[in-house]
Amino acid sequence: MGKEMNGQGEERTAFEIGVVVPKQAGKERDESFDCVEVLVEEFKQAGLIVEKVIGIADEFIKLAAPLETLGRAAAELQIKKPTHIGMDLQFEWDEVEAFVRQPDGSLFSWCERFHCFNHLIYGIVNKRNSAVSLKFDGKEFHWELGESLLKRLEAEGIVKQVFPLHDEIKRKQLLRNWALNWWDFTSQPVDDIYSYFGTKVATYFAFLGMYARWMLFPAALGIMLQLVDLGSSQSMMLPIFFISIILWAVMFFQFWKRKNAALLARWQISYSVVADPGCKILGLDWSSLQSPVELVKKVGTDRAREKEVFQRAEWFGHMMRFRNDVIIFLSIICLQLPFELAYAHLYEITRPDALKFGLTAIYLLAIQYFTKIGGKMSVKLIKYENNESTEYRADSLVYKVFGLYFMQSYIGVFYHTLLHRDFKTLRQVLIQRLIVSLVLENLMENSLPYLKYSYRKYGVRHKKRHEKGSSTGKIQFTSRVEKEYLKPSYSASIGEELEDGLFDDFLELALQFGMIMMFACAFPLAFAFAALNNVTEIRADALKLLAMLKRPVPRAAATIGAWLNIFQVFVFCFGLEKYCHQFTWL
């Protein structure tokens, strides 16, 4: 919130939203008509605390909000919050003491504060008697009656971006107690992560931490099975190992569901509350898509007509989803399958191990860009589906894109398994993929944001030197808000439309889980590689969020969504595979 409690019980101002506008060429401004000055004045009248910062290439407006301003915005938004009597009631500022506070002692969560900020800054409309003439750098336009000022400035290209700001004090605390704390390698301050990043990011790290902790058990079994020469008892130990892994996986997901429910209860979140509030934040304009329920409301009170329209819209939605699934499936068969089989064949005929490592590295790099084509196609296709809610749309997108990545990750391994049944070659493929992916993915995941950030800083410096007409002199970035603005956003690799970098993180976990579960019989030591990767992934992802990227936009999510179904399908496939394995190999 705009004012938060520090360790001594005193309040401090925390700027949480940044607004970016370009510098104006003219030195003299008419403040009564200058749109930036008008925007600043309107922010102040809305009860916000405003601070202007002059950067090298742009100007920045930092915004904070007193608790009362956020409280009145929450009341206008009719946000429901739990009370001390055990009921969720609509928030009222006059009854603030009746509502339960967050685990960190604050009144509102980060997601609620962000919604309040959006309501305050985008709710500034022209309430005057006529349109207002505004100017910016010699350009003049009109602010119409009832029009949002910030949206108009965004449409005119004057407001370049609105983004959340890092809280430097909390960021450094999380860096010290979380990202750089390797003593307890699976323990995480989940409540602090929730308070700072929101529900969805905190749920991901809670799942990742529990997954990494539970992975130690099969990793120990795999090491024992790999190192100990069991001789004639090998055939007896493998079925025991398979059964242990299946039981481990089933128990893990059951215990995760319990932990997830406990976290939601501690964070005062219910499943019904998180259904649709985050849809506008996701980047995809879901509001332009009409659900069957919305269509029914438009028809009127004619019951027969309502039923007909509802059924027609429902069947149309099913047909659109079926069409999109067919398009994705055919694109895999026609485009990706030959590419995967060609790699598998080249790998088999290549003799030196060094060349095989190089081929695997080139392959893993190539498919990352190859599958982005299918991912972007999925994002476009899903816009034409009439899904019932935002959650269904997001799940549909996960299933489609995961289908692409599933094929590109496993078809080469299936080739060795089913056609040649060469366990020695299969084991080499798994070792090389796990080692290369462990090194390559962590390297790219942490180096690419830094390279993008460095390139943007270089671009700003180069542009500034060009304006001055001098190629000498050192240009320093002194303002923290400008450095944050130049950092990349936390977005999915398949496109900015998702605006959710957790898609890539969950995808990486799902692909890893599928590989170690489906091919555990060939290489039990794979669980040890996965355990090492997951422990590293916790700190790498934490460091990425805290130091290399902008602060993510908070999103409401009660569970890990469709990813849980994908994990459970892998468990079922693993059990089915081992059941068939007993009758074909033993």
Automatic annotation (TrEMBL):
<keyword id="KW-0812">Transmembrane</keyword>
<protein>
    <recommendedName>
        <fullName>Anoctamin transmembrane domain-containing protein</fullName>
    </recommendedName>
</protein>
<feature type="transmembrane region" description="Helical">
    <location>
        <begin position="204"/>
        <end position="225"/>
    </location>
</feature>
<dbReference type="InterPro" id="IPR049452">
    <property type="entry name" value="Anoctamin_TM"/>
</dbReference>
<dbReference type="Pfam" id="PF04547">
    <property type="entry name" value="Anoctamin"/>
</dbReference>
<feature type="transmembrane region" description="Helical">
    <location>
        <begin position="509"/>
        <end position="535"/>
    </location>
</feature>
<keyword id="KW-0472">Membrane</keyword>
<feature type="domain" description="Anoctamin transmembrane">
    <location>
        <begin position="193"/>
        <end position="572"/>
    </location>
</feature>
<feature type="transmembrane region" description="Helical">
    <location>
        <begin position="237"/>
        <end position="256"/>
    </location>
</feature>
<keyword id="KW-1133">Transmembrane helix</keyword>
<feature type="transmembrane region" description="Helical">
    <location>
        <begin position="396"/>
        <end position="418"/>
    </location>
</feature>
<feature type="transmembrane region" description="Helical">
    <location>
        <begin position="326"/>
        <end position="345"/>
    </location>
</feature>
<dbReference type="GO" id="GO:0005254">
    <property type="term" value="F:chloride channel activity"/>
</dbReference>
<feature type="transmembrane region" description="Helical">
    <location>
        <begin position="357"/>
        <end position="375"/>
    </location>
</feature>
<dbReference type="GO" id="GO:0016020">
    <property type="term" value="C:membrane"/>
</dbReference>
<dbReference type="InterPro" id="IPR007632">
    <property type="entry name" value="Anoctamin"/>
</dbReference>
<feature type="transmembrane region" description="Helical">
    <location>
        <begin position="556"/>
        <end position="577"/>
    </location>
</feature>
